[in-house]
């Protein structure tokens, strides 16, 4: 299987720096299920192409799988899935991308760090990928790619993707979306690695119209990670493969919305132990970060988690922790780009909520306010939660979608915001998602 990466960004031969591969050499790596080769079939200042070639050893794949389990593993016909493995781009190509082009995938370039941060014209070629559901355009076009899809047989297609992207972004999209397209039942990419990417891909994934399909298919692979096939591939796997915890999905959705809003100066209201703050400080795009909580115990834990005393002064300067109650107007909080109320409003007695709303939307009045709160309707999906009970003993209420929508539109109207309601976590057709997210914005008209 093959992936070609072409750029016309001059001088185009700097693609070698971006991929950390000398264009004059041929680079080989052993992958356990075959070998990967990176070479440059075309090198020049106007146009350079790199090729990642993965030679899968299908015989070895089958033999080793049979040797381990003595039967087809895990209830699926191995033959079927191995048949097109050698040439059809799949998760095996993703493994190769991360092993051979890991620094580029991570956005790192020792020689050309600025170029790694710069969107450049790119053309990615995949001569064969299984795309039985004809989803290539739906997956790649919303991300700004021009997709040319040429069928090669009933279920396979050749893809050419053209667009202007940071190389790391382009690679991470291919890394996640080729296996999603392929949709076979095994996904031998380390869970941590894929998750990290999905998280860093948070920006593009959160706004992707096919986000649900992408996540659903991706999660299905994760459940398959314990397939005996993986052992035979020599790929480390997690023994336990829990779904991504909701709190992580929440944090990622909030980060993605903050980035989407272009927020730099950010309030984390009711920051608790600082889980979100820890992510915010990692991104220098957030230039001023303020965590506020009424609980000094939480603030102390946040301080410890963030290792404030060990942080570099430059990072330390960006972060402030404030002790304060959100139900009182606080001028210190005025004038920020964005405020986050992540799982906070349900901790406030309902009669006190208008006071919190006034202090956040009226006094602090940031351009963007993100509010997350449980969706009560979803609670029936938690087998351990008695009927009518709340998810947390300190919750004063848990709202269904209609109740939250009513609060959102009343608040938006009263304080002059527009509001958009979203879900976080698996979406159930009848019940909605486990977490509700509202994005309030003011100022610029839609
Ligand atoms: N946002 C964090 C913590 C959520 S728990 C997270 O998602 O991980 C709710 C937090 O809100 C607690 O830390 C609690 O102390 C804080 N809180 C509740 N009511 C508050 C109020 N009126 N003023 C300030 N903080 C409050």
Tally of domains = 2
CATH architecture verdict of the largest domain: 3-Layer(aba) Sandwich
Low-confidence stretches: 64-82, 185-189, 223-242
Multimer state: single chain
Mean pLDDT: 84
CATH topology of the largest domain: Rossmann fold
The percentage of residues in β strands lies in 15-25%
> How would you write the strand order of the largest sheet?
2-3-4-1-5-7-6
**Which outline best applies?**
globular
Please give the CATH class of the largest domain.
Answer: Alpha Beta
Number of helices: 18
Q: What would you give as the CATH superfamily of the largest domain? A: Vaccinia Virus protein VP39
Output the structural class: alpha/beta
Structure write-up:
With 446 residues, the chain is of the alpha/beta class. The chain folds into 2 domains: 2-188, Hen1, N-terminal domain (c-terminal autoproteolytic domain of nucleoporin nup98, 2-Layer Sandwich); 246-441, 3-Layer(aba) Sandwich (Rossmann fold). 37% of the residues lie in helices and 22% in strands. It contains 18 helices and 14 strands. The protein has helices spanning 15-19, 58-69, 78-83, 91-100, 102-105, 113-116, 136-140, 167-182, 191-200, 202-206, 211-223, 228-233, 246-260, 275-282, 296-306, 313-318, 353-364, 401-415; strands at 2-7, 27-30, 34-42, 48-56, 120-130, 146-151, 156-165, 265-269, 288-293, 319-323, 338-342, 368-374, 418-424, 435-441. The strands form 2 sheets. It has a 7-stranded antiparallel sheet with strand order 2-3-4-1-5-7-6. It has a 7-stranded mixed sheet with strand order 10-9-8-11-12-14-13, with helices on both faces. Strand 8 (265-269), helix 14 (275-282) and strand 9 form a beta-alpha-beta unit. The radius of gyration is 24 Å and the shape is globular. Bound molecules: S-adenosyl-L-homocysteine (SAH). Residues 270-272, 275, 293-295, 298, 325-327, 342-344, 347-348 line the site of S-adenosyl-L-homocysteine.
